[in-house]
Amino acid sequence: MLMRTDPFREFDRIAQQVLGGAQGTWSRPTAMPMDAYRAGEEFVVCFDLPGVDPDAIDLDVERNVLTVKAERRPQEGAEGAEFQVAERPSGVFSRQLFLGDTLDTERISAAYDRGVLTLRIPVAERAKPRKIAIEAADGDRKAINA
């Protein structure tokens, strides 16, 4: 239902470690951690976005590609300050997911609570198991699983 989409993520992680994690070194947006799982008749995707204002989150779906972008702005009042420790990344975070045809991209819902963006994507009706009636030669109908 979901395909891993960012083959360069591991390369970026290694490059950031080698370069000391300097923010702004790479022009590619930073990927955000996520969990994805199926729960009943829906697919759930959770993204960690601590410290991100909900107004700074942008969700787009084009065909079967879901794009999540978020921006964590620098701490207010920290401009020009001399940081002793700067481990909290700021800037643009982005993630693209390729959604399978079995998901209903028209009915995606999103909620943001305590730094976690949760998307719920229903399984499309056409992908759910259904019964098909078989007409017997004597005119009786029986339903079977398809």
Give an account of the 3D structure.
Residues 25-137 form the SHSP domain. InterPro entries: A-crystallin/Hsp20_dom, HSP20-like_chaperone, Small_HSP. Belongs to the small heat shock protein (HSP20) family. This is HSP20 family protein. With 146 residues, the chain is mostly beta strands. The chain has one domain: Immunoglobulin-like (Sandwich). 7% of the residues lie in helices and 41% in strands. It is built from 1 helix and 10 strands. The protein has one helix spanning 9-18; strands at 2-3, 34-39, 42-48, 57-62, 65-72, 91-99, 109-113, 116-122, 131-135, 141-145. A 4-stranded antiparallel β-sheet has the order 1-6-5-4, with no helix packed on it. The longest helix has 10 residues, at 9-18. It is elongated. It starts with a strand and ends with a strand.
TL;DR?
This protein has one helix spanning 9-18; strands at residues 2-3, 34-39, 42-48, 57-62, 65-72, 91-99, 109-113, 116-122, 131-135, 141-145.
Count of alpha/pi helices = 1
Tertiary shape: elongated
Low-confidence stretches: 21-27
* CATH-defined topology: Immunoglobulin-like
Family: Belongs to the small heat shock protein (HSP20) family.
Domain SHSP: 25-137
Pfam families: HSP20
InterPro entries: A-crystallin/Hsp20_dom, HSP20-like_chaperone, Small_HSP
